[in-house]
Structure formats: structure tokens, C-alpha cells
Amino acid sequence: MKKYMVIGIGPIGSILSAHLLKERIDVTLVDILKERLFSIKKKGLTVKDPRGHTIGNFVEYPKKILYSLKEIKEKPDLIFICVKTYYLLDVASEISEVFPSSPKVVVFQNGLDNEDQAAKVFGKENVLRCIINYAGAMASDTEVEIAFFNRPNYIGVMDKENTPLAQELAETLTRSGLETKYTDDIKKHEWEKAILNACLAPVSTITGLTMKEVMDSPPLREIVENLLLEGMKVAEGTGVKFSANFYESGLSYISKGGYHKPSMLVDMEKGGRTEIDFLNAKIVEYGEKLDIPIPFNWTVTAMIKGLEQKKQNPVNQAKKR
Q1: Is 70 helix (H, G, I), strand (E, B) or coil?
Q2: Which single residue of 63, 145, 215, 217 has CA 20 to 30 Å from 207?
Q3: What is the CA angle 120-80-282, rounded to 5?
Q4: Which residues, 6+ apart, have CB-to-CB distance to 33 below 8 Å?
Q5: Are 4 and 76 in contact (CB under 8 A)?
């Protein structure tokens, strides 16, 4: 039996881990949040799926948990990296220290060009990329609720030699309830997901409103629409070709979020560090290189960075205490 490892047991990693465990796959859960992992081992990992996005409500009891990669006794066949994008290189560096001969890794995150960053550490021959189209929230340390799943997820490779492995993983994830398709054009799906995240998440974060509340506000929806159009123009400038109805289907996609806080807003509320550098800031970076106007993305990037600065300012933290 193949041995899998999931690093980062937040909403994305928890949903993934529980579904893999349900398939009776040998999975090790890794996270620095010791209390969460201890509670999960004792009470089980509960998936709440009130809208029936995958296979309904269930509980799984992981047998293997680690608080640090340095504790591992055996090398896994595959590692899913589910941490926040800004921890990617830190985690990749730790993996490379523990395993001089790199295992295969799946970059299981939101954002643009994450796999390129991972490849600098592991080599393209060891990196796969998955585009996640589900979202959730931790209801407690041991309970994760699926907010939505706009099927399917997509998985692709940087090295064609890994195509059979990616196809096998797509089948495994699909059997588990997380419908996933293999694609030869992972960058297209990566751009699609990134610009959809980038057009709604920062507006929600700046205003403190849920996804539905933003989309129900005509002036805020107009900002979202302009962010989406800018993102599409930049992506097309890199060679991405969208379907004729992508704009309309994209708006429909993000309109299904309901009263759900995007992870960027949750991150801001918790500590003030977000994934903006892998979303809107990346669009700005590409836009400037391609000489494509990006005023909306530039503005929300600057505003989010300002909010991060305010949130992380030691003076402000002292006032809270």
C-alpha cells in the first residue's frame, strides 16, 4: 500500500485527509498545531457536508499524526502540501532536509506559480500541481464543514513522466468523493482559479463581507467584475485561452459561495498575513511585464498590504492586549 502524507491540516488539508482515510489509504497528518492534531486523534476528524457536495457527513480516525517532519520514521511515496502559500518554501526546505532524495510532492494550494517555486527545491520531475475547487471552514479543531465544491478539481504535471501518477491520483481522489480530472494544461486551470479568487477574496477582505454579501452589492460587484476582466486580459497575455463563456461562468462560480468568508478574510481576521502575493500581486507582476493596465488589481493589492501592515503592527497588537 502506498504511503501518503498531508502537510497542513486546515480546512483544505482536513477535507483531503478525511476523504483519503475513507478510502483506507495509509495517510500521515502533519501540522504544527499540536492541540488540533491531538484532538483529531482522540475524537476523529469529522467532515460536515450539509449540501451533499461529496459523500455526506462522516468521521475518520487517523492513526498517524506528526507535529514535525523531523519526527518521521519512514519516507512517504507522496506528499500533499496544503499549507498557506506563504509557508510553501519553508515547508519545501524542511522536506528537502529530511529527505535528501525527494519524494513526489503535490502542490495542493491556491495561487499562481506555486509549483514553479516548489520545483526550485524538488526539481520539476518530483512536482505535481492540483487546482482545488472546493472550500471549507473549521467548525472546531476536529470538525470541518464543506462550504462548496464546484466540480471538478484538476491535477497536472511539470514532467510528462509523472502523467500516469497524476492520472492514478485523479482516480483515487474521485473515488474518495473529491472528483478530480487529469489535465495536460494545468496552467490554464491555475489561471482560471487564481483570477476567480483574486476578483472576490480581496474585496471581501477589505470590506469584511461574506462572498454573497459582496456579490449582492451592485457597486462592489462592479469592482469584482473589473478585477475579473483585468485578470482575464493578463492571463490571455501569457497565452491562456479561455472558453467563450468563461466570464459569465466565472461570475456564476463565485456567486455560489453563499455566506462564506474566503480564506483571505479569515487569515486577515486571525493574524493579518494573506496569500495576496500569490494572487492579485502576481497578476500585477504579470500585467506590468506585459504592459497591460491593471488599476483594479494594483489598488486592491496595495489596500490588502496596507491592512496586513496595520494588523501586524506591534503597536496595534499591544493595544489589543
Answers
A1: helix
A2: 145
A3: 50
A4: 9, 141
A5: yes
Nearest-angstrom CA–CA distance, 144 and 211: 19
**At a CB cut-off of 8 Å and minimum separation 6, what does 310 contact?**
272, 316
Nearest Cα to Cα of residue 225 among 205, 247, 249, 197? 247
Which domains, and CATH codes, for the chain? 3-184 (3.40.50.720), 188-312 (1.10.1040.10)
CB atoms inside a 10 Å sphere around CB 295 = 11
Q: Would you call 227 exposed, middle or buried from its count of C-beta atoms within 10 A (0-12, 13-18, 19+)?
A: buried
Give me the DSSP letters along 230-282. HHHHHHHHTT----TTHHHHHHHHHGGG-S---HHHHHHHHTS--SGGGTHHH
Query: Can you tell me which residue has the cell 483594479?
Result: 296
Ranges of H-type helices in the chain: 11-22, 34-43, 88-98, 114-122, 163-176, 186-207, 211-215, 218-237, 246-254, 263-270, 280-290, 295-312, 314-320
Judge whether residue 318 has pLDDT over 50.
Answer: no
For residues 35 and 50, give the distance between their C-alpha atoms in angstroms, rounded to a whole number: 26
Instruction: Summarize pLDDT for 72-131 with one digit per residue, the tens.
Output: 878 899 999 999 999 999 999 999 999 888 899 999 999 999 999 999 999 999 999 999
Q: Cell 491556491 identifies what position?
A: 110
- 144 CB-near residues (< 8 Å, 6+ apart): 11, 14, 15, 18, 45, 46, 47, 48, 136, 137, 138
